[in-house]
Fold this sequence. Notes:
This protein has 23 helices and no strands. By secondary structure, it is mainly α. Helix 6 (100-112) runs parallel beside helix 8. The chain starts with a helix and ends with a helix.
Amino acid sequence: MISSSIVEIYLNLLDTELKSLDKYIHTSEWQNSSIIVEIHAYFYALKKKNQLENSNKEDLYRILYGKAPYNDSKLRFNLNRLTQAIKQWHLIEKAEENHPLTQKIWMDYLSEKKLKKNSNFQLKQPTAAAISSEYKYLDLYFRSQLSAAYILRYQKDYANQYKAILEIIESSQIFADLTFLRNYCSVINLSQIYRASDLEIPVERLEAIKHKYSQTDYLEFKLYISLLDMLLYREEQQYYDYKALLLKHIFEINDVEKVGFINYLINYTISKTNSGNQDFLKERFEIYQFLEAQNLFVLPGFVDYRTINNVILIALRMKEITWAERFLQRHIESIENEEKETCLHYNLARILFEQKQYKESLYHLLLVDFSEDVFYAPNSKMLLLKTYFEIREYESFISLTKSFKQLVKLNKVLSDLHKTAYINFILFAKKLFQASKNKKKLIALEISETKTLVEKQWLLEKANA
């Protein structure tokens, strides 16, 4: 594969973006450069066939220059020109969307050139729908700068000039406060995983922001303040307050932040179940039901194979098998091609297992590609072990307990906590498989008292059967 940033760009272009770029290359001034058109056509064709990994410098050079001796500098020069063309295309796309940063370039131009009529016209234009609250308030700041420049240059009223400068200060402070809140939420969330010893909570700054914005109409501030309370104090009441506020205003939030706000909500329920509060399994499923009923899973960037795996897991634990089937059928097409098949077969295997169609479940398990995700291998082995347990395949079951345990021990990605949870599952599954009815009661007590354990509910069901 061509080791170039240009390949990375094409790899990450969506189909709609690829189509737009293709149109731009063939209709802009770049259409006059046959070399750029041909290079783009080369990558375009490979992208459409999902074969960009087959890109090759020598092949591309022959397409461009026939039998001429290969010249790497010459090729790199033209690849850089194509990158420049892509930059121009992207900027034009953003300008057409009224992106605040492209609007800022235009506003600076109006101010520098002292274009009075155009500046006045620009200030009267309605603000475009912001792609995030950060850009919303950044645009407010940019507009305050243009407005102040206009007033200072064309108005002699000192009161208005004074007021215009204050508006710049205020709008910049609003933007700074929002940026602080957003990023501090991220820091607090990350600190649950990486506990930095030097993390100090700026209490005075937080309290000042809360006091300033709690009684205003700035919805974004109310949401981030409520979210921050939930992340800092971890109390259930803060969770329910945040949830109520978020779901009440869910359709007033831009799509990008909507996904982020929802994920914070879901992550809290995960942390509660991981700490042993099983009531939050139902809570989490109710959130999934709400999101599905409101068609929110179709938000850009929301659903990937991990999302589907997690949703199906919770639905099956709640015995909502039909709901899980419908969810999988509806959303599997949104997954990237290389991940789709494994995600589909893995979840079909789980659904069929819950329906006690064990042979059919085994068939789909055999089609799971373990290389797609580090958790597919242990989770598929676990499902396979449960299947052998249910159909009483003694030799296969015993053999798998050994190989499964070895797989977990040798896995270099799984944490020690995850390894312990899987090994404990293997241990209890083996005990139950060989135990008499009387011994199962004692094993059930052991299972209940073991904290680090996967599939605890299933093991308890087998112990109490």
